[in-house]
Amino acid sequence: MQVFHNKSRVIITCNKRLSPYLQDEVTALGYTIERAFATGVELNITLTECIKLNLNLRCASQILYAIKSFKAVTPDDLYKEISAIEWEELIDFAGYFSVTSNVDNPNITTPLFANLKVKDAIVDRMKEKKGIRPNSGSDANKAVVHLYWKDADADVFIDTSGETLAKHGYRKIPGKAPMLEALAASVILASNWDRKSPFINPMCGSGTLAIEAALIATNRAPGLYRMNYGFMHILGYDEQAFFAERRILKDQVIKNADLKIIASDLSEDAVEVTRRNAKTAGVDTLIEFEVCDFELTPVPEDGKGVVVFNPEYGERLGVHSKLELTYKRMGDYMKTKCKGYSGYIFTGNPDLAKKIGLKASKKIEFYNGKLDCRLLEYELYDGSRRAPLIEA
C-alpha cells in the first residue's frame, strides 16, 4: 500500500466553529477543498502532502488519511473488515500503535470496546502474517489508527498527526485556564489585525494570544516546534520529505520584524509564564511585558491597532459585582485609551458582556471547550468620529 504516493480522502478536523479559519489556511497553502463542514474540511491528496499540512496549520486538530470505507453492523463485522486490511504494509510489526475512534453505533455501548476490536484485528493480522505482534496502548506518539463508525457506515484512517495539532508545542507552562493555541490563532485571524500595527493584550494570562500574534506576524509555523508526528511511524515514510518542508518553514520566517506587541497582567507570575512561553517560541524579543492593572497597559498612539481581552467569564461562580465592574472598566479603557483601534473581548458570559457599555459591531461565534463564546468587536473611533454608542 503506497499510501505516501496514492491520493485518498483526507479529513482535517478542527474544534467547532474554527472551520472558516481552517478553510482559509488550507486554501492559502494551495490545496483544493472538496468539502467543508462544521468541524473540518475534506481533501483528496497523498499522505506525503499531509506532511506540509501538519507542519503549517494553526487551527487544525487532526489530519486523517482514509484507507478503507465499509459497512459494519456488529463488532464482528468490524473485526472482519479491519482484519482484511494489509496492516503489515502500514505498521512496523515490531513497532507500536494506538487506536482512537468516533463511534455512534447501537451495538456498541462504549467506544473503548470498538477500539479494542480494531486493535485485536490489527494484532491478529500482524501475528498471522509476520509471526509477531506489535505493541499497542493509548499513547498517540507513534502510529495512530482512527475509526469513524456511525450506524452501519465505517471508515478507517491513518491519523497522520498523532498528538493534536491544536497545541503548538511552545507552551511548556500552561498557566491558569489557558486558551488553546488553535483557538487563540483563530481569534487573531478573525480580528482586523493587519500583522503590522500594534497588538495589545491586557490580562494576558499565560500569553497565548500575544505569542500567537507574534508567530502569525513573523510567519513562524507550528511545525518549527515539533519533531514527532503520526506519519513518521507509517511504513514508507521518507524523512527527507519532512526535513525539506521544515527547511521551507525556517526560510519563510520574517526576521527583524518591526512589531509592537504588548502583553500585560496584574499577576507577576502570569507575566513570567508569558515571558518563558514566548522565549520557548522564540518571540520573547518581539513582545513587551508589563506587570500592571489592565487600565495602565500602554497603548501606542501612532496609527491604528487592535486590543484583545480574554477576561474571566464567571461561568463557575455566576455573575458577581467584581466581574461586572471589571467588564465595565474594560469598556471604559477601550473607549478612553484605545481611540482609533479595533477592540475585541472574548467572553462566554453574555450577561457580563452587557456591562461593557459599548455596542459591538460584530459578535463572532466560538467555543472554548464546550462553552458557547463570542468574540465581540468594537470600533473605537478617534476624535474625528462619533463616540461609540452605549448599549441599551
Question: Can you describe this structure?
Answer:
By secondary structure, the chain is α/β, with parallel strands linked by helices. The protein has 2 domains: 8-159, VC0802-like (2-Layer Sandwich), CATH 3.30.2130; 181-221 and 254-380, 3-Layer(aba) Sandwich (Rossmann fold). Helix content is 30%, strand content 23%. It contains 10 helices and 15 strands. An 8-stranded mixed β-sheet has the order 2-3-1-4-8-7-5-6. Strands 11-10-9-12-13-15-14 form a 7-stranded mixed β-sheet. Helix 2 runs parallel beside helix 7 (239-251), helix 3 runs parallel beside helix 4 and helix 5 packs across helix 6. It starts with 7 loop residues before the first strand and ends in a 13-residue tail after the last strand. Residues 384-390 have low confidence and may be disordered.
The CATH class designation of the largest domain is Alpha Beta
User: Could you state the oligomeric state of the chains shown?
Assistant: single chain
Radius of gyration: 24 Å
Helix-strand pattern, N to C? EHEEHEHEHEEEHEHHEHEEHEHEE
**CATH topology assignment of the largest domain:** Rossmann fold
The percent range for strand residues is: 15-25%
CATH architecture of the largest domain: 3-Layer(aba) Sandwich
Distance between the termini: 63 Å
Strand order in space, largest sheet: 2-3-1-4-8-7-5-6
General form: elongated
Secondary-structure content class: alpha/beta
Number of helices: 10
* Low-confidence blocks of residues: 384-390
Largest sheet at a glance? 8 strands, mixed
Give the overall pLDDT as a whole number. 93
Overall number of structural domains: 2
The named CATH superfamily of the largest domain = Vaccinia Virus protein VP39
E-strand count: 15
Helix content: 25-40%
